[in-house]
Amino acid sequence: MSRFLRTCLTALATGLVLTTAAAASDPEAGAAVFRKCQACHAVGEGAQNRVGPQLNDLFGRTAGGLEDYRYSPAMVKAGEDGLVWNEESLAAYLASPRGVVKGTKMAFAGLKAEADRDNVLAYLATFSSAEAPAAEAETPEPAEAETAQAEMVQPEPAPAATAPAAPEGAAAGDGLVLKLGREATAEEVAAWDIDIRPDGLGLPDGRGTVADGMFIYDDNCAACHGDFGEGIGRWPVLAGGQGTLTHDRPNKTVGSYWPYLSTVYDYVRRTMPFGNARSLSDDEVYALTAYILYLNDIVVDEDFELSKDTFATIEMPNEPNFKDDDRPEEAHYTKDEPCMTDCVAGKAEIKMHAAVLDVTPEDTGDNEAPAVGIE
Ligand code: HEC
Ligand code: HEC
Questions:
Q1: Confidence of residue 30 (pLDDT cuts 50, 70, 90)
Q2: Contacts of 310 (CB under 8 A, 6+ apart)
Q3: Ligand (nearest to CA of 223)
Q4: CATH number for the domain including 193?
Q5: Would you say the C-alpha torsion 262, 264, 266, 267 has a positive or negative sign?
Q6: pLDDT band at residue 174, thresholds of 50, 70 and 90?
């Protein structure tokens, strides 16, 4: 057992009030914290250098001091300038690696929680034989630690590819600044922000008729979904099935089941044709959406043109069977406060719907236990 631990235990045994750092340290908890380091560091018997240097006999090691590991120039320089790893300098380094050794190649944001730092150091101390870290802690080398700290300039942003996992637990992330990435550009936001609300908000400009849609559909969709949306083989059926929802084997299609047309537009735009997603223009998606309505007898006029303006005239047959989920235990569905934070005036109108069907006994067809969910 290291002298560090022994000191702790003796202190405990004699009922001494320990100084903050030592008081909390728990090598076992530290072993769990060390999982954050393990991708890059090994410690213990036979530990080899990995992405980072092995951490045996760390206490008392000059920073950048292993012969067989290639440190960054910054770490070598820190060692030459006198940085030696002890409880204090390690605690500072683990809190903010780049704050203490500006330019270190250790791509790790740091351990923000003091207890995590204390514990992981207590754990590492169990692999440090020679010099007792506790003794060193009493005679720290504040000069170095402070010079190093004084260099604490804005840490450079870490490359995104080496982004460390955020610390576990909600509290651990508090106040954490990873300094990764950059602000998204307006163009990027526009490209991602393509969701459409059931009332049509978010629809792009453009238009397409049923007749247009038929040609596009035959070329791009019929091979899987069938000429009439009946589905070839095991590919999904897009049309029909109305009135079957309460049957033993309900036939759920866009026409029989989907509550909102906005989902059809969004789904086709994002995902279809299968294997060639995002290849359709907005006009083509309007035309295809119109054609799918036609296949489902929801519109009957081949000249019907779907656009932002006509979108709201369409009501999907099954929409009335969807109702607000008002289960009180589902906090995020509560009606009173649809959004807990950042309520924008318009958004407060949004209601969450769940796929809960109202099934009345007379609808139940030939069997008593409908396969669809009842509230
Ligand atoms: C993403 C990989 C990565 C993670 C995660 C990581 N390190 Fe490092 N660590 C490195 C690299 C690389 C170096 C060498 C830095 C240099 O040369 O600038 C290093 C250096 C160190 C050093 C200096 C060792 C010496 O010999 O000078 C210590 C101490 C250290 N790490 C501790 C930790 C601890 C403790 C954790 C977990 C809380 C951790 N590191 C997490 C990659 C990592
Ligand atoms: C190569 C076969 C293939 C082609 C071509 C294809 N789809 Fe699909 N489509 C699928 C598959 C597979 C799914 C189900 C995907 C899933 O559930 O993850 C699907 C699902 C759908 C759905 C949702 C059906 C439902 O009820 O869940 C719609 C709507 C749809 N496709 C429309 C289209 C349109 C419009 C086109 C032509 C632009 C098209 N698809 C082309 C294979 C295809």
A1: very high
A2: 304
A3: 2
A4: 1.10.760.10
A5: positive
A6: low
Does residue 239 line the site of ligand 2, with CB under 6 A? no
* 166 and 195 together in one domain: no
Domain-embedded: residue 366: no
Q: What's the domain count of the chain?
A: 2
| Domain end (from 293, 318, 343) | 318
Return the SS3 of 174: coil
Cα 75 to chain centroid distance, Å, stands at 33
Q: How far is the CA of 52 from the centre of ligand 1 (A)?
A: 5
pLDDT in tens, 284-317: 999 999 999 999 999 999 999 999 999 999 999 9
Which pTM was predicted? 0.47
Residue 102 forms part of a structural domain: yes
Question: Atom 7 of ligand 1 has which residue's CA nearest to it?
Answer: 106
Q: CA-CA distance, 120 to 69, in Å (whole number)?
A: 22
Domain end, chosen from 285, 318, 351, is at 318
Question: 96-123, pLDDT tens digit by residue?
Answer: 999 999 989 888 889 999 999 999 999 9
Cross-strand bridge partners of residue 353? 324
Q: Which atom of ligand 1 is nearest to the CA of 66?
A: 26
**Residue found under tokens 């959004």:** 339
Does one domain contain both 103 and 72? yes
Q: Are residues 79 and 123 in the same domain?
A: yes
Domain membership of residue 80 as a residue range: 3-173
